[in-house]
Each structure stands twice: as C-alpha cells, then as structure tokens.
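Methods — Computational structure assignment.
A single polypeptide chain was analysed. Its primary sequence is given first, followed by the predicted tertiary structure written as structure tokens.
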Amino acid sequence: MAEQRQAVERPLSPHLQIYRLTITMAMS
C-alpha cells in the first residue's frame, strides 16, 4: 500500500500546488 500511495502522491504533488495557488488567489 505504501508503494501505491507514493505513486498517487507523486503526480498529485504539482496538482495540489496549482490547486492551493488558485485558492490563495481567489481568497486574496
């Protein structure tokens, strides 16, 4: 399960960054 989680987190890392950036810009 640990390996599967890493495989999912890897591509999600950049996606989460963009998601957070969008929320930050919307809140500003």
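Note: The radius of gyration is 12 Å.
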